[in-house]
Fold this protein.
Amino acid sequence: MNIEFVGRHVEIDNAIRSLVAARLDRVLRFLMEPVEIRVALEEEKFRQIAEIHVSHRHGSLHAREENSQLSEAIGLAAEHLERQARRLRKRAVDRRRRAGRETANGRRWPVEVITAGSVAAGAVREVVRTSHLDVEPMTLDEAARRLEGSRNDFVVFVDTESARVNVLYRRRDEHFGLISPEG
């Protein structure tokens, strides 16, 4: 965890650094990988101000609190950030859970999985498993981002530029492959 400290009329010593690090540990439990943490501590007459900015992969969190004690201001700002991070994490989990449902603009296409032996013999005898997938319109970049964040090995989507159904799949070398119809 890399924390950048800025002090305005405040001497930042190791006790303050360890207090901030301890308070931010609770916040970082809800974030996947924070990129940058900036803590600005300021003293104005009888007010102590703590301002914390956390930039991470999916956006940024910001809190500014003031109190008569610097440690209280840091604690209040950390609690504010924790509420924001918890809300962000809950939204991400809900979004993943909603991904399996049918969407208003998406279409559901049946997917049939058949055994290799039945295809090689020339006659398909039995459908082993049928699944339904949501096919949503998106760009190739959006499909790649969705595949990176997914445990699946492929994403079926309607390309917004060509209005055709495409399949983006994860290859064994961890790169992506694209299957798109001709014409």
User: Anything to note?
Assistant: The beta strands are 3-8, 34-44, 47-56, 59-67, 107-113, 129-138, 154-159, 165-170, 176-179.
